[in-house]
Amino acid sequence: MSTTPIKLADAQVSARLEEHPEWSRENHALTRTFVFVDFDQAFVFMSKVAEIAKQMNHHPDWQNRYNKLTINLTTHDVDGISELDFEMMQKIDALLDC
User: I need a surface site. Which of 42, 45, 61, 70 has the fewest CB within 10 A?
Assistant: First the structure.
């Protein structure tokens, strides 16, 4: 049984982001832009993120332009940032260590 996510308070989000300086908050989302060597590498990364999204049933908003990928994480059900977004953020970051 899944539970409804809970929107994190602004102070909670700010404190967590201090541990992840590559990410920032824009409006009601966590955001980061990744730059790759070329489109192929960006696409491979997007495919890996898509697998994470499928497994978590939590899907990012993103924009790809050639070798740049901007990912925005938000929990639409709570109109803000939840623990799900931070969990996905950490999984995305872990892909870079592979």
Answer: 61
Please say whether the dihedral angle defined by the alpha carbons of residues 98, 84, 64 and 68, taken in this order, is positive or negative.
negative
Domain ranges of the chain: 10-96
* Element spanning 68, H or E: strand 68-73
Residue 97 backbone phi and psi in degrees, to 5: -85, -10
Residues of the chain with pLDDT under 70: 1-2, 98
Dist CA 17 CA 24 (whole Å):
7
pLDDT in tens, 12-29: 999 999 999 999 999 999
CATH fold for the domain made of 10-96: Gyrase A; domain 2 (3.30.1360)
